[in-house]
Design brief:
The chain is α/β, with parallel strands linked by helices. It contains eleven helices and ten strands. Strand 2, helix 2 and strand 3 form a beta-alpha-beta unit.
Length: about 325
């Protein structure tokens, strides 16, 4: 059976999680063909062994895309997508997993019934292995089943592992946006979904279908403050680029302020007063009107004072 849905699963050093990710795809109950395209990027653990084993066991359902050398996350993502043959493409990284066996069927039904919608996403559970905490995401479903660009950037409700999109539109995205020309973008999924929101409809299915693992070593949640700060700046840089190109620059000031306050909140919570001051100065030099918005300095001070109070409580006999 020719696949109606291709599942794009990129993986690198995901040995502890990959079997669950693959089994979540294979358990799908769907009256149409589903192929799993595994993009393995020369892992240094047992990830490649797992991929080969599944491709050999399920040759009609699992295809392996790899190469003789590591090409990096962006090139691996692109070549794995290019290998997908279905009318629709679903996404699930090798450290996430699907929990609903009817996920694909329900999302395909939604997109088939609404040609104006280019991408469908659902709710997830975010799992933090370091603490065992689980929390629904988004915490509350969007008020509107359709998400526009002006709403998406304000309240980001999309986890990549919950999405299903039309493959022809994904190819249009790559042709139009050319993300490979933006090495400063540290993620590929956020710009894609912003493009869908700006150019096509995004619809929401109110069901929990997947679990997103938030790992401490990730660029957005890791212990390295510098990497998280760079990721924050990258995300807001992406938002600003899309707002300038597709939103007429209507949200620029709000986005600049959010980038400023997010950075100062992180530095206030985890950095030093000197780091906060240097960041404030560099932001004001780049965007002078921030001088009129002291909220950034207030956010940094609140973080620093909160941390000092917590340290004082810990030191109290």
């Amino acid at each position: 059976m020719e696949p109606l849905v291709s599942v794009c699963m990129t993986t690198y050093n995901h040995e502890p999680y990959l079997v669950e990710a693959i089994e979540g795809v294979l358990m799908q109950r769907a009256p149409f063909g589903v192929e799993l395209v595994l993009g393995e990027d020369c892992s240094t653990d047992g990830t490649a062994v797992i991929c080969r084993a599944y491709a050999e066991r399920w040759p009609d359902r699992v295809r392996l895309v790899t190469g003789p050398r590591n090409v990096g996350w962006r090139a691996n993502y692109r070549r794995t997508l290019a290998a997908c043959r279905g009318r629709y493409v679903a996404f699930c990284d090798g450290d996430d997993r699907w929990t609903d066996p009817d996920k694909l069927r329900r999302q395909v039904e939604r997109l088939e019934s609404d040609p104006s919608c280019g991408m469908c996403f659902t709710r997830t559970v975010r799992y933090y292995p370091a603490t065992g905490r689980r929390e629904p995401y988004p915490s509350a479903p969007p008020a509107d089943p359709y998400t526009a660009f002006g709403d998406l950037w304000r309240r980001w409700p999309v986890d990549n592992c919950s999405t299903l999109a039309r493959r022809d539109l994904i190819e249009d995205y790559y042709a139009e946006v050319r993300p490979a020309e933006h090495p400063e973008w540290l993620t590929d999924d956020a710009p894609m979904w912003l493009w869908f929101a700006a150019r096509h409809g995004i619809c929401f299915l109110d069901a929990v279908t997947a679990e997103h693992r938030v790992l401490t070593g990730s660029v957005s949640h890791g212990a390295d403050r510098g990497r998280r700060l760079a990721f924050n700046d990258s995300i807001w840089g992406i938002h600003l680029w899309f707002d300038a190109r597709y939103g007429g620059g209507r949200h620029r000031r709000q986005m600049e302020l959010r980038r400023h306050t997010d950075a100062l909140w992180l530095l206030g919570r985890e950095g030093s007063a000197g780091e906060c001051l240097r960041r404030w100065g560099s932001d004001v030099r780049r965007t002078p009107w921030l001088l009129l918005w002291p909220v950034g300095a207030w956010v940094a001070a609140k973080g620093l004072l909160g941390r000092a109070a917590a340290a004082g409580k810990e030191g109290r006999p």
